[in-house]
Amino acid sequence: MMSDPRDEAARYLARRRSHDDGVDDDATVTSTPGAAAAVDRAAFIESAIQVAIRRGDFDDLPGAGKPIEGLGTHHDPDWWIRRKIETENLTGLGPPALLLRTEDRELDGQLDLLGRESDVRAVLEDFNRRVIEARRQLQGGPPVVTAPRGVEAE
User: Fold this and answer.
1) Domains in the chain, number
2) I want to staple 18 with a disulfide (CB 3.0 to 4.6 A). Which of 23, 55, 90, 106 is the partner?
3) Where would I find the H helices in 22-142?
């Protein structure tokens, strides 16, 4: 079975770097069994990235030379969920906390379209039930900060 020359080159670079650092190759392998494989893997990945850069694989990527959107603003651990939902124009997907916030913003407009009091009550009771249910869930994700609506006030 033939080995990949890039794999061999990465192993060679890893051995050379560890030898230049004064680390004995045999001592590394025997003292920490997974360290040699990790060094080989890291060296292979680094050499693959350098080869791709030289080939120009990273030239003309979308957003090249532009600042990363949203960097430096407040920390939001769920930024990737929000961005995916916005860019893909997805509805009905995501953590209940985000879905309920969105629904709460749009609820007044939906209630204005309803003509009967019983319909408004049914929609609000369903919304309030889902808010309370989401608050009881312990599955992680962002906290549910949406408040239930007052059925009588609406």
Assistant:
1) 2
2) 23
3) 25-31, 35-55, 79-88, 96-113, 117-136
Q: What is the pLDDT along the chain (154 residues), one digit of tens a residue?
A: 556 777 777 778 778 877 665 555 444 444 455 667 777 888 899 999 999 989 988 888 888 788 777 676 677 777 787 788 788 877 776 777 878 888 888 888 888 888 888 888 898 899 899 888 888 877 667 777 788 888 877 7
Q: Residues 51, 102: one domain?
A: no
- Residues 83 and 140 placed together within one structural domain of the fold: yes
Token code pair at residue 2: 């033939």
Confirm if 79 and 142 have CB atoms less than 8 A apart.
no
Tell me: do 48 and 90 sit in the same domain. Answer: no
Domain, as residue range, for 48: 5-55
20 and 93 together in one domain? no
Q: How many residues does the chain have?
A: 154
Q: Is residue 62 part of a domain?
A: no
Residues 6+ apart with CB under 8 A from 70: 76, 79, 83
Q: Are 128 and 86 in a shared domain? A: yes
CA dist 115 and 105 (Å) reads 20
